[in-house]
User: What shape does this take?
Amino acid sequence: CLQGCGHVYCRQCLVSYIETKYDTTLNTKALKVTCLVDSCNSLCLLRDLKALTDVNFYKLAKASFQAFIREQKDLVDCLDPECRQ
Assistant: This one.
């Protein structure tokens, strides 16, 4: 059951869907995992993603952040790989 909207899915189908979304994130504008029901546009909550997948949550958070940065026209990643800001 997704906590954002309450729709119920087979765990394996939902995990496959989430992992597919995660895998394509680097080529898209943003990581937006929504409910599978066409008429429901609820976003999957991060706690759902963390609980349902074996995807490294750090990598998921990083991909989400990078997608956010790509959407922001006035923000760029620092070119220094040692930079912590």
The chain has a mean pLDDT of 78. Residues 17 and 36 are 8 Å apart (CA to CA).
